[in-house]
Amino acid sequence: SALSADEHAELAAVADNQEEIESRFFAPLSFGTAGLRGVLGVGLNRMNRFTVGQAAQGLAKLIVSNGSDPMECGVAIAYDSRHFSPEFAKQSACILAANGIKALLFDELRPTPELSFAVRELGCIAGINITASHNPPEYNGIKLFTKGGRDAVESVTNELGAAANDVDPKEIHSIEYKRAIAAGLVQEINPQNQYLDAIIRGVNMDAIRSRNLQIVLDPMYGVSRTSLQTILLTARCDVSVIHERHDTLFGGRLPAPNVDTLGALQAAVLQNHADIGIATDGDADRLGIIDDEGHFVHPNQVLVLLYYYLLKYKNWHGPCVRNIATTHLLDRVAEAFGETCYEVPVGFKHISAAMQEHNAVIGGESSGGLTVRGHINGKDGIYAATLLVEMLSVTGKSMSQLMKEIYAEFGTAYMSEFDWPFDQEMKEKLHHLLMVEKQLPAFPIPVVATNYMDGCKVLFENGWIIARFSGTEPRLRIFCEMPTREEAERLTGVMADFLGLPMPVKMI
Fold this sequence. Notes:
Layout: H1 5-13, H2 18-25, E1 36-39, H3 49-65, E2 75-79, H4 85-98, E3 103-106, H5 112-121, E4 126-130, E5 139-146, E6 150-151, H6 154-165, H7 177-182, E7 186-189, H8 192-201, H9 205-209, E8 214-218, H10 225-234, E9 238-241, H11 263-272, E10 276-280, E11 287-290, E12 296-297, H12 299-313, E13 320-323, H13 329-336, E14 341-344, H14 348-358, E15 362-364, E16 370-372, H15 381-395, H16 399-410, E17 414-421, H17 424-436, E18 449-451, E19 456-460, E20 463-469, E21 475-482, H18 485-498
Parallel strand pairs: 2-3, 2-4, 3-7, 8-9, 8-10, 13-14, 13-15
Antiparallel strand pairs: 1-5, 4-5, 5-6, 10-11, 11-12, 15-16, 17-21, 18-19, 19-20, 20-21
Helix pairs in contact: 3-4, 3-6, 10-15, 12-13, 12-15
């Protein structure tokens, strides 16, 4: 159970009142951009054994109703190092098993991209991962993958949300774990070797072996160390690791690899004279990079570097895909090579769908998630990190040299990113102002166009700004990209002042 002692006592005190139990613990579930996430505890959109039970039983109902053979294909289940992740994963497996659905449960903590890989390779009906990715330690959640290992699209998560909310507590069926194992309804799996072999086959290991690169890894107390270290040691890199143990509190910091959380990695890169520092978020589907000069390499720059590398140095051909809040420098690179950059709403499910539709070379987001054609259908920080190491090896150039090469050819682009917490009243007020009335501040430069695909995006001749509500946590985010930091932060201040938000706010 994910309930505290006080909550257990509270539940016991109302045990004779079924309606009160249901109203307090079986709150309506709302699936957002990447599935279901919430703070551990009791209440609306909270994560506990009751909400997990609703979601698992709802998924079972959908699978049974669609006519597939649930025992032949099954559902793969993974989990990360957060509080109650193993317990929630096992609970989900037992509920699926009790509904006649084979559950393939990972036998240890593994990265989210390995689950995406397993769903595809094993031909599973679906996959679920108990994780809250880069959210704070008090969060947990459920990520849903559909056949082929793809992030579930909105129509599917909406359908699951409706099915879960329609679950009567008395309808939740479960089976004892040992009985489920003995009956073959739950099977423990470990697809690590197959996943690592797929990455190794997809990169130029000979080129990496020839360079003897110095690399520092920061798993951020999450789940990437074994996978990434195994690949790099196989390629004869000299690897140092910090923050390597599994920790449910992630060392007391946010498990999101950004400019504010990678100070220790930056220091380790400089101290070790390393070629690159690599960090992954809590479930290893996103990454953060420190270059050879100790500078944080923004995920936007990582995307541009890899797309440029694949087109120029590996002679690949094809478009790229980015979300609405990701760098337009990708557009310039694509245009120079006669390709197209496609824009989609925030959420990797949109990236995956557009990549398949357009046979894109690469797709990604400014939050650090990306994938490349020919790999899995979801974002993968481990594969992306390995490809960056290949890039350094094949080009013989440092990360900083390659970025200067790109800026010299395509011009500079700097993105400022700020966020603010909100309550429901504030959200409704700002949503009405921006999305209904469509009011804009008096920007000091001409507005070229506006875009309301996902938030309020304003385009200028040399840049853009967007204000949108996060789909994974209660925060309003403003992103602005201009040729210089000063221009980007000045326009961000104009938007924030218009919305009544104080500046400055912690940069994310």
